[in-house]
Amino acid sequence: MAGTGKSTISRTIAHRFREKNQLGASFFFKRGEGERASAKRLFTTLCAQLLLQVPALIHHVEMAIDTDPYISGKSLKEQFTKLLLEPLLELDQNEPTAIVIVIDALDECGNTDDIQTILQLLPDMQKCKSRHVRIFVTSRPELPIRPVFEKSNNHQCIVLHELSSTVVGKDIRAFLSDEFSLIKERRKLPSEWPGDDVLETLIKRAVPLFISAFTICRFVDDPKWLPKERLLALLNDPATTSGSQMDRTYLPVLKQLLAGADEGEEKQLKQEFHDTVGVIILLATPLSVNALAQLTDRPREMITNRLNGFYSVLSVPENLDLPVRLLHLSFQDYLLTTKESPFRVSPEKTHQKIALHCLRVMNDSKRGLKRNICGLLSYGTQYEDIDRQTVDQHLSAALQYSCQYWIYHLQQSEGHVSEPEVFPFLEKHFLHWLEALSLMGVISEAVGMIDMLQRAVGVSLCVVHT
User: Cα(378)–Cα(439) distance, rounded to whole angstroms?
Assistant: First the structure.
């Protein structure tokens, strides 16, 4: 279940074992965070971290890389075997010690086949006799995951949403008490605020979801409002006592957007919400306010103003060049699945909108794609000789995002973007697009992207010319 505190537990376990010098490695999957939503960096990341914890592995990993320098691009099974399992099996067995590996939110890995492969490979770590390897995995009980666990008996399982409300309530009480103490101290509020009765009410409304308790605290502590007024508004909002748990968590936040607006203002606010927050929750990787302004072709001030009301569900840095992030994916889930709500986000239509934004950015005559976009002196310049600052100077964050993810959004739109909208771009900018991918260091992804494009809209690239 979303919001039960899985990632919080993972972070706590990782922190405690790091303090004991027993954390071997960790990887936190996160949907919508680029490479963190994919398994392609999982085993290489775990290997790199293990080398710091167990230096004796370095020699064996170096030998594996010398034997196959391209191992990082091979299948997950080959990476796991050559970079993790075989080096661990080669270690001296005289002094076995414990190593903990934490893998969080496995369900947020984008490829279901990769999820099953990972779960089938991990138990082989128990073959290592020189180290007692223990792996802590959190996940929602999604279909690709349940069958693998059901077929094996080499694990222990705790189902958070099956814990008694008494146990969960005790933990949420401790969390809310601590957070409200910090709010009181930070905002110079009376020691008796908010009172035991109010705290008990909030605890009952939050159980069994930690994300509800977390959102309550962020809502009340919004720096642009007075905490007493925010808490009173929350307690008096009917949405906090009716509907689903997710309704009670997120509707009060969303309804603040329309408070006091007339019919015309409501229409504008809803549209701005879908043009900003609706886009943010479906981005393949987070973008800054400045990049969002260019991508969506909306004024930066409008985006900043609209995001100001979502402090409790979004991380919006003061630096407008830093990415805006979701605080919890359950907010995305809620907006995509809520019924009959003006805040519901249509995934297909929004992906269509983002794909068309990307095409517009890449087609832009001033800041879009063009031949030799970085003004290099020689077409034979090697990638490693090109300064990253030069690339970022000539390819804005919005343009780089558009080049890397326009086909992904086109595919996710499920036919809402057609060949006539794509073909003119390919005719004019196909080679420029490949050049940009090369400058960005992701040209290896081009073949897969082209295959995806042809499946999505049936464009035959053999007729494309520039």
Answer: 14
